[in-house]
Amino acid sequence: MSAEPNSMTPNYYTAKGFCFTSAFWMILATFAGLLGATELMAPDLTENIGWLVFGRIRPIHINLVLFGFVTPGLLAAACYILPKLLKTELFSEKLGVVTVVLWNITLVAIVVTLAAGYTQGREYAEMIWPVDMGVVAVFCLLIVNFVMTVKRRTEPILYVSVWYVLAAVILTACTFSLGNIIWRPDTGSLKGIPDAIILWFYGHNVFGLLLTPLSAAVTYYVLPRACKTPLYSHTLSLLGFWSLIVVYTHIGTHHLLQVPVPTWLKVIAIVDSVAMVIPVMAFLINIWYTVQGKLGEIHADVGAKFVFTGTIMYFFVSIQGSMMSLPQVQRVTHFNNWVVGHAHIGVLGFAGMIALGGLYYILPKITGKPLFSRLLADFQYWMILIGVVGFTVVLTIVGLIQGNAWLNGEAVYRILPSIHIYYVARASIGLIVFTSALIGVYNVIRTLTYQPKESAT
Questions:
Q1: Number of domains in the chain
Q2: How many CB atoms lie within 10 A of CB 375?
Q3: What is the pTM of this model?
Q4: What pLDDT, in 10s, does the model give residues 385-425?
Q5: Mean pLDDT score of the chain, rounded to an integer?
Q6: How far apart are CA 124 and CA 116, in angstroms?
Q7: Strand residues in 57-197 grouped as ranges (E)
Q8: Does 7 reside within a domain?
Q9: Is 3 contained in some domain?
Q10: Whole-number Å distance between alpha carbons of 56 and 74
Q11: Distance (Å, rounded) from C-alpha 22 to C-alpha 426?
Q12: What are the C-alpha distances in Å from 406 to residues 148, 328, 332, 420, 453?
């Protein structure tokens, strides 16, 4: 597909499409999470309704959060950031619109197939082969569009955000294909321990080589621009980039410390999990020194406020993740709600906050008009922040109760009455996050469609 000719006013159809996609699927993703949390609180609520049982709702929730809400939100920002940094237009808005449409068709297929019970039964890789191929196809289209945009650039220097965006789409296309065993359409898996190893190679890298690079790309663009300050250190940004690529790819096996995986692979996973402090702190030091003394500017821009809060969440989730890879810690924290709390800090607190920040930052720029309601955006910010902190506290407490009880030989069913109240709190917090999604989609749609009165003067 050839590129459209240059124009003075880009239409940003692709970025707008991904904005709407992210906002819309956030509603369904958070509703699925709320329903799953409610089922844990009241297991008989959806009794005998096969397509609503917890075993089907949970993978729907996870995959919609990952591919429906967070990734499109980050890609929306990327579709604005790349042309700006490269001083050219997106290679093909038509190809971008096709990508957005195919992305949404794939998301519908994810919901329908998982709800109907068609699954490969592998965590984060539950989708059946035809749906897997839809995901691979959209990433291949993104690669073509982004690489060709870079090729047509008029800016000779590649800012670090460009590095991160290209790495995210290219590496994810590879790791998704490998982790979902797409060369075996009948099973989508290998056998035994090799399958577990390759699954968790993918399972962790779908976060570390997709959400993390895209989030870093958005952060490296939004915060310096919002604060009107140059990046503190380009050298630190490249250190963070390359150390992330080298270190993160080897840590997935820390999910398998308690199974018969080769010891050398476990050691590599543990060492690299601890070594994640290098890319994390290189990124955070660089960003925090860039915005030093500029908190007023961050507060004034609601998008920057979301993004900056996401960097704080990144610090907590990364330190926690390194600690959880240690065998003595994992004896207590693994296989319980502690891990669920950790995932919520990472996906909703870190990547989700930055996705929403990037979305709110670019919306006025791609529409040429102010955000419909700064008040609603601020309200959504506080609801999500309360939700993330609430999830973290509640699920950490539940995880410690479960982990210590099981470590001491207590039966699973005897623990359930003591943690029921926490499941009630969890569902209540989920309602807050779901409400924030409703507010967000209203704000996004109105921003995309309304005509401000000032434009008439």
A1: 1
A2: 12
A3: 0.95
A4: 999 999 999 999 999 999 999 999 999 889 999 999 999 99
A5: 94
A6: 17
A7: none
A8: no
A9: no
A10: 26
A11: 24
A12: 54, 14, 8, 17, 62
